[in-house]
Every structure is written in C-alpha cells, then in structure tokens.
Amino acid sequence: MSAVQVGKPAPKFSLYDSEKKKVSLDDFKGKNVLILFFPQAFTGTCTKELCSMRDNIALYDQVNAQVLGISVDSLFTLARYKDDQQLNFPLLSDFNKEVSKEYDCLYDTFVFDMHGVSKRSAFIVDAMGIIRYAEVLEAATDLPNFSQIQKTLSELK
Asked: In sequence order, which residues have a C-beta less than 8 Å from that of residue 71 and are 6 or more positions away?
C-alpha cells in the first residue's frame, strides 16, 4: 500500500530549487499544488511535458494552482534546464531521492542501469494539504492525464 493516497495528507517536504532556495510544500498552504515528478532533465518526454506546462501555465494560474517539477537531477542541472527551456515554475532537486521515495515514485532500475530515478508522476495537493489526485506512470514515455488533472483542479477552485 502506497504512503500517498487520495484523501490522505500529502507527505511534507523541503527541497532546494534551481535558484538555490529551499522550498517546502508548506510554503503553498492555501493554494492547490500540482507536483510533477519527472525522470531526467534534457530528455525528450520530460522536455515535452514540462514545456507543455510552461505553455499552459495560465490554465493552472486560473485555478489557483502552483506547479512544481521535481527530479533527482542536481539543482545545477535543473538551473541550466530551466533556463534552456524558459520554464516558468520552480524545479526542485530531489538529489537524495527522499521525496521520490516518500511519494512512492522511484524506479529501482531505470535505463542504462541507473538506480533511483523518479517515475513520471503527478500529484495534486489541495489548499489544506490533502492529496486529491495521484498518478504514477511505469513507462517513462507516457504522460500524465492532463485533462483529468485540469478537471480535478477546476473542481477544487
């Protein structure tokens, strides 16, 4: 049974973002948060997913939702990636893999025998800190169900 379940409190976390600032889930109390775990910066599907978020950020702003991207990349890698892709939301480094473990979205083995890479996942945490949507994808080439995510967020508004 996963630690993260819809209707249960979201595991709290604090991670450094690409600007070297510590960001906590608690920083967004009173706002809905869309947490997107992604396997690795500078890869095709991740870039497609995060650039889609960038291009549609107004949809998330309209429903009082903060988007957070999380991967096990270093904050230095994420800073370059965010700059290269002109992403308009925070990217957080889970380099120590603690938050990905807590959210039960970590591959044991990923491509090229890499261990401890985040699975592509989407979680919505409501303004009270409760999980309202959880989707963990096994195939790194799959994308989250963004129409369902937007529907869930609009219902929380």
From this structure: 37, 38, 39, 40, 41, 46, 78, 91, 93, 94, 118
Q: Is residue 105 annotated as a catalytic residue, yes or no?
A: no
* DSSP for residue 8: S
Q: Which secondary-structure segment (H or E) carries 66? A: strand 65-71
Distance CA 67, CA 91 (A): 9
Q: Which pTM was predicted? A: 0.94
Tell me which CATH homologous superfamily contains domain 28-156: Glutaredoxin (3.40.30.10)
What is the β-pairing status of strands 65-71 and 91-93?
parallel
Helix axes 44-55, 75-85, angle to 10 degrees: 60
Q: What is the pLDDT along the chain (157 residues), one digit of tens a residue?
A: 456 899 999 999 999 999 999 999 999 999 999 999 999 998 888 889 999 999 999 999 999 999 999 999 999 999 999 999 999 999 999 999 999 999 999 888 776 777 788 999 999 999 999 999 999 998 888 999 999 999 999 999 6
Q: Name the catalytic one among 34, 36, 46, 122.
A: 46
